[in-house]
Inverse folding.
């Protein structure tokens, strides 16, 4: 089905064509017509499933019929768990809002940067993408009003609840008008999501797309058995010997991420870390450099990986295994996207082998484990 069959206006269809969007994902096909007609949505959809466009396009479409909002009175509010996702969603809104018949100003706000420029920039904003804490900060200093919000989006609601935003979200809900359209997207359905669903949604259209591991067949998975002291040299060996030009490396801690980057740089491999201890400006620049191919290796923690959405990322390496099989699937799911093949590599120590077997069992796939004793890592 083409986008033209979903009820979108000519300016938005023109913008889609200009930006090269041709394939409709299942969540978009189901959500776009329902949102245009004002229905509430419960979408069970993983990162990378196309859900951002599934609400950005119909929400912008609705602005054809909305009068210009009173200054500092937000009309559409999107809540997200991380700074990176806020920036990413904000960019998508801006890229399409520019094509609308009347100007619709959108903006992303988040913590970790000065609040003053955000307060000034909020002049005339009608669509706001925000992390919960910074949104409440801005409300407390009267930089914006939520009394005119007619559409609320919760993107990655499960992550916001897991990261401890529940109390802040409840405060925000109390500030919103009772009558509004609510769109909730979550990777999973759990007790907390069920509770929020009951509180927020009215006769929602439920959309559930296939799990993220359904595209694992596109990903070549390999594991290398290695001692802890040989992990760093093996990582550098693989990057150089396989001529990897764009590779995302996952570590389990901020300290390890910085350590891996330092040793990569010493060995003349351009790399940078992405984690919660980095300033927002640095995080934004680092992610942009990686997405555009200016940075060869990005070393990230799991939390920072939210918002890393690269359509054709060829390589992912688990320097350390994550705690849960779901996080493993999320990590390797950064590659093998948009029907393009990718490679996911895990570096496994003896003490991690049992955990890796559990991951394979939960995933329903066996991963080849390669012994590295015979690989000469001298000089790496």
């Amino acid at each position: 089905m083409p986008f033209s069959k979903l009820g979108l206006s000519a300016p938005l269809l023109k913008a889609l064509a200009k930006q090269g969007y041709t394939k409709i994902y299942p969540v978009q096909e189901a959500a776009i017509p329902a949102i245009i007609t004002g229905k509430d949505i419960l979408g069970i959809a993983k990162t990378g499933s196309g859900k951002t466009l599934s609400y950005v396009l119909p929400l912008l479409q609705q602005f054809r019929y909305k009068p210009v909002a009173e200054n500092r009175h937000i009309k559409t509010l999107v809540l997200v768990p991380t700074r990176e996702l806020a920036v990413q969603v904000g960019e998508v809104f801006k890229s399409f809002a520019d094509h609308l018949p009347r100007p619709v100003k959108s903006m992303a706000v988040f913590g970790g940067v000065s609040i003053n420029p955000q307060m000034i920039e909020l002049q005339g904003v009608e669509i706001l993408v925000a992390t919960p804490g910074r949104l409440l900060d801005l409300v407390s200093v009267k930089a914006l009003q939520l009394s005119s919000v007619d559409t609320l989006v919760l993107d990655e609601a499960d992550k916001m609840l897991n990261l401890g935003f529940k109390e802040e979200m409840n405060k925000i809900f109390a500030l919103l008008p009772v009558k509004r359209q609510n769109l909730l997207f979550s990777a999973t359905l759990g007790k907390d999501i069920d509770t929020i669903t009951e509180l927020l949604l009215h006769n929602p259209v439920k959309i559930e797309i296939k799990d993220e591991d359904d595209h694992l067949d596109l990903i070549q998975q390999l594991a290398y058995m290695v001692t802890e002291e040989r992990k760093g040299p093996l990582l550098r060996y693989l990057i150089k010997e396989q001529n990897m030009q764009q590779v995302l490396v996952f570590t389990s801690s901020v300290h390890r991420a910085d350590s891996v980057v330092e040793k990569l740089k010493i060995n003349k491999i351009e790399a940078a870390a992405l984690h919660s201890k980095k300033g927002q400006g640095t995080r934004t620049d680092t992610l942009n450099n990686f997405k555009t191919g200016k940075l060869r290796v990005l070393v990230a923690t799991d939390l920072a990986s939210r918002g890393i959405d690269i359509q054709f990322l060829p390589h992912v390496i688990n320097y350390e295994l994550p705690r849960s099989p779901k996080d493993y699937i999320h990590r390797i799911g950064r590659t093998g996207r948009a029907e393009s093949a990718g490679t996911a590599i895990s570096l496994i120590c003896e003490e991690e082998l049992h955990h890796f077997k559990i991951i394979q069992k939960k995933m329903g796939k066996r991963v080849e484990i390669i012994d590295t004793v015979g690989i000469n890592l001298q000089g790496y």
User: Anything to note?
Assistant: The domain at 213-371 is CATH 3.40.50.300 (Rossmann fold). Residues 325 and 362 are 7 Å apart (CA to CA). The chain has two domains: 3-210, 213-371.
